Amino acid sequence: MKAHELYSVVDSTLVTQILDWFRANDRNVYKSAVATLAGNRKLRPVFIQKKPLAEQYAWIHKTLKINACDTIGEHLLQAYLMAGQQSLLAMFCDGLGIPHDGKGSVVGELPKKLDSERLNATIDRLVGLFDPKLLTLYLHCFNMQVPGGWPELTEKITSDERLVLA
Question: What is the pTM of this model?
Answer without folding.
Answer: 0.91
